[in-house]
């Protein structure tokens, strides 16, 4: 048992249990707590100490990982923990908004505690492996001091001093995936309506997606610098496809809302005299709500 490796884990759902078990198996003196006490039994059998209350769990270790269902559950636990957190480090990996992460940090500082916010991009079986990613944000000095322990969870990254940045990163990454996948499913509906084999089509798309990383990097730099080269070809050329894409979808009863949005933005950008620029230049027309 490593004497310098003490950690508590609050919340023993699938992810929290995986985190706690990983710490136990790697020799950390691990204390656990869960609202439903029966969930602590397998970890107790594995060698974890079981706290009677959340406050007792926080008191037991210099660092406590909170892995709960949602932000409301975090609020409830913090209310019970109170000033027991003084002098401790709280690492919250529960999914929540950037605003709540910042509020959690303010609360922790009011109690005399340090706070890091983290998010988990991966599934419970991958905790402690390279098949999971964890962005963290908050105090750089606190992150540096506990980096070795956090790395036990898997590959980690530091997003910045703003406690909300890990949540920004997580939500943005998930949003990109959902935007891509719902667009893919609508297109699969179109391909199916035309009688093509959708599984074979998906294989071909998977091959073409291999070119996306370089394109995404180029587009990100273009938006940052405001210098829009014709990344996918000039808008003047791309726009010529849009009427056919929209009419094709609608002829088969497939949703064309996104294609109509793209056409509207392209037409507006070209009308402004930027037809020689690339797709990334549409960013300039996206509204700020």
Name of the level-1 CATH class of the largest domain: Alpha Beta
Flag low-confidence runs.
none
Q: Going across the biggest sheet, name each strand in turn.
A: 3-2-1-4-5-6-7-8
Helix content: 40-55%
- The amount of beta strand, in percent, is 5-15%
Terminal Cα span? 53 Å
Helix run count:
13
Order of helices and strands: EHEHEHEHEHEEHHEHHHHHH
CATH superfamily label of the largest domain? NAD(P)-binding Rossmann-like Domain
Give the beta-strand count.
Answer: 8
CATH fold-level name of the largest domain: Rossmann fold
Principal-axes shape call: elongated
Count of all domains: 2
Major sheet description: 8 strands, mixed
Would you kindly provide a written description of the structure presented here, covering whatever features stand out?
The chain has an eight-stranded mixed β-sheet, with helices on both faces. 49% of the residues lie in helices and 11% in strands. It is of the alpha/beta class. The longest helix has 29 residues, at 165-193. β1 (6-10), α1 and β2 form a beta-alpha-beta unit.
